[in-house]
Design a protein that fits this description.
- The structure holds two protein chains of two kinds.
- By secondary structure, chain A is α/β, with parallel strands linked by helices.
- Chain A has a single domain, classed as Peroxisomal Thiolase, Chain A, domain 1 (3-Layer(aba) Sandwich), CATH 3.40.47.
- Chain A contains twelve helices and 17 strands.
- Chain B is α+β, with helices and mostly antiparallel strands.
- Chain B has one domain: Thiolase/Chalcone synthase (Peroxisomal Thiolase, Chain A, domain 1, 3-Layer(aba) Sandwich).
- In chain B, 36% of the residues lie in helices and 21% in strands.
- Chain B has an eight-stranded mixed β-sheet.
- Chain B is globular and about 60 Å long.
- The chains are: A alpha/beta, B alpha+beta.
- Strand 6 of chain A pairs antiparallel with strand 3 of chain B, so a sheet runs across the interface.
């Protein structure tokens, strides 16, 4: 594929609002995970909650979209001048020529969960203020971002669980290649809700302490929330040497099980190989791998097998989910932005919380953040339903 | 200037109220038979292992049924066929059950309900049923979901020069969600799209974005179906296919965007 430039990017998670606090936390090896006090949740687990989300007011005229997920989206859009960069691109290219592909797994379902607690005791009806289209529907966040940024191009939400906002890069890249659009806003937004907290708990996949990816004693994931965005454009001739490029995307399906990965990471390996092919790179040219690394025993084992088979065992790799939590439908986007920050600042983020590496996992797991000149990075995202996506990013010079 | 995307339609699968399969639907849409709306009947799936079969709700069965019909009519295999799944609401019954449990004192969700709650559940079961390890996408664009799925499929086909399966499906919610999102019944459509004409090709399809001009259905019951179910926004396109006529259909997409489809039959 022809590389695309990330002409703007930003991430907001429990590590902070925007690039600067995110990078500082990653460099210092700080986690944003803390014991869960979200809503009325009584589970003994840690979460990566973004403070202050519910204080964000949506712009006048967009009240239809009120929900935690869209408040988080707006908070994210306003960091690092991202919204201004998109408006400038719209002025340059035309609002109909900029597409939106965003990932989310649960959209504004928290509003629906709360509405179900407030049903009419006689009729069972939801409260009158319940808004299906603006809050509940999976498309809500893309519809909201399209309106908030004044864009009029094609738009879709990709919702394939935890690969959602990695796959948006692939869909947007194809739309640019086919000439459907001239730029694309991509990213992911997922917010805390009861469905995922109690759902992962039902599968016994939630850790009690902050998650410890690739640790011998890892016992599950920690759920987080995030809003991460990038603006993709065809690169012009005047790229700065520290500009970040999307070099390759690879997607596959496990065709194996709804909630468990193929034990040897068959689909994961296929996605990584496809990304290398698209980027025309050999495995040895990848300087760092941001693992999916959720911290569940089976996910990390399957991924380690796939990584060893495709990239070998020497490439430095880490999961940043010990710092951010697993932000589910936003994870691919968040980790893409972490890769972009890593490339532009020459920082390989270490995986925090992990104490004793699992000797059964043949991966060069990086526990301390390390400064190094980086050229090309890979990021993995895998989801329920056996949906896999790998992305490769690189520096322009 | 918007790009023109094109493909050949190799096979169609269809299931909806009073529309039990594509040949029956084609007779109705061509005007050769009258339309009578009857509740959509979705049969059990033989293609899944029994454990998975027990876990699937009607929405997954709907999606897989139309996908398998399109494959069969095209005489194609799913093996390395990329698939695009487009749905506005996914599995509404499953979502309702989860929200109901979360509103109660125990909050003990069934693990199966939770893994079925992902928007790509149909895509996951499709992989298990067909063994296809090719990339699959699961997307949503509310009422624009069919057009968004078709665009994604046409773009994939253009860029990778590969056949793509598009499966668009939606089903009715139970109350109390039904009042907030009154989808009348289940409707699914699958199109097997190929980059070149084959012996079984039905028609060539070209698509481009335009600003306005949606066409409805002349039959009031079919128009109610088109307007009521996001996946049934495909009906104006399917009418052209059924009639075997060249022509143009403009279908609903987003605010300020419509998708203009030009259909050129092969026979």
């Amino acid at each position: 594929m022809r590389p695309l430039a990330l002409t703007a990017f930003t991430a907001t998670s429990c590590l902070g609002r925007g690039a600067e606090p995110t990078l500082a936390a990653l460099a210092a090896g700080r986690t944003g995970l803390a014991p869960c006090t979200f809503e009325t949740v009584t589970l003994a687990t840690c979460v990566g909650e973004v403070p202050g989300v519910d204080a964000i007011a949506l712009p006048a005229g967009l009240e239809e979209f009120e929900c935690r997920n869209n408040r988080l989206a707006l908070l994210g859009l306003r960091q690092d001048g991202f919204d201004e960069a998109v408006r400038a691109a719209a002025a340059r290219l035309g609002p109909r020529r900029i597409g939106i592909w965003l990932g989310t797994s649960t959209s504004g379902i928290l509003e629906t969960e709360l509405a179900y607690r407030a049903r009419d005791p006689v009729s069972g009806a939801l409260p009158a203020g319940f808004r299906y289209r603006g809050a509940h529907n999976t498309f809500s966040v893309a519809a909201f971002v399209r309106r908030a940024l004044g864009l009029e191009g094609p738009a879709a939400v990709i919702s394939s669980a935890c690969s959602s906002s990695a796959k948006v890069f692939a869909s947007a890249q194809r739309a640019l290649a086919a000439g459907l659009v001239d730029a694309a806003v991509v990213g992911g937004v997922d917010s805390l809700c009861l469905t995922t907290l109690y759902g992962f708990h039902s599968l016994q996949l939630v850790a009690r302490e902050p998650c410890r990816p690739f640790d011998a004693g890892r016992d599950g994931l920690s759920i987080g929330e995030a809003a991460a965005f990038a603006l993709l454009e065809r690169p012009g001739g005047d790229l700065a040497t520290d500009a970040v490029l999307l070099l390759g995307t690879g997607e596959s399906s496990d065709a194996w099980h709804m909630s468990a990965p193929h034990p040897e990471g068959r689909g994961a390996a296929a996605a990584m190989r496809a990304a290398l092919r698209a980027a025309r790179l050999s495995p040895a040219e990848v300087d760092y791998l941001n693992l999916h690394g959720t911290g569940t025993p089976s996910n990390d084992a399957a991924e380690a097998h796939a990584v060893a088979a495709v990239l070998g065992t020497a490439v430095p790799a880490s999961s940043t989910k010990g710092a951010t939590g697993h932000t589910l439908g936003a994870a691919g986007g968040l980790e893409a932005v972490i890769c972009a920050l890593a490339l532009s600042h020459g920082l390989m983020p270490g995986g925090v919380n992990t104490q004793r590496l699992d000797p059964a996992l043949p991966v060069s797991y990086l526990r301390e953040s390390r400064r190094a000149p980086l050229r090309r990075l890979m990021s993995n995202s895998f989801g329920f339903g056996g949906s896999n996506c790998s992305l490769i990013f690189g520096r322009a010079g | 200037m918007s790009a023109v995307l094109s493909a050949w339609i190799e096979g169609v699968g269809l299931l909806g109220p009073g529309l039990p399969d594509w040949p029956t639907a084609a007779r109705i849409l061509s005007g050769a038979a009258p339309y009578e709306s009857r509740p959509t009947v979705i049969a059990p799936l033989a293609c899944l292992p029994s454990a998975e079969r027990r876990r699937t709700g009607k929405v997954v069965r709907l999606a897989l049924t139309v996908g398998l019909e399109a494959l069969e009519r095209a005489g194609a295999a799913a093996a390395e066929l990329p698939a695009v799944f487009a749905s506005s609401g996914g599995d509404g019954e499953n979502c309702h059950e989860i929200c109901q449990v979360l509103a109660g004192p125990e909050r003990q969700i069934s693990p199966t309900r939770f893994h079925n709650s992902v928007h790509n559940a149909a895509s996951g079961y499709w992989g298990i049923a067909t063994g296809s390890t090719a990339a699959a996408n699961a997307l949503c664009a509310h009422d624009a979901s069919f057009a968004a799925g078709l665009l994604e499929a046409l773009v994939q086909l253009r860029v990778a020069e590969t056949a793509v399966m598009l499966i668009a499906y939606d089903a009715d919610y139970p109350e109390p969600m039904r009042s907030a999102r009154p989808i009348p019944d289940a409707f699914g459509v699958a199109l097997l799209l190929t980059p070149a004409a084959g012996p079984r090709s039905l028609a060539q399809l070209s698509a481009q974005l335009v600003a306005a001009g949606t066409q409805g259905m002349s039959d009031p019951q079919l128009e109610a179906l088109r307007a009521g179910v996001p996946a049934a926004r495909s009906l104006p396109l399917l009418r052209h296919l059924a009639r075997g006529e060249s022509g143009r259909a403009v279908i609903d997409y987003l605010e300020n965007q419509r998708l203009e489809l030009t259909v050129t039959p092969c026979h």
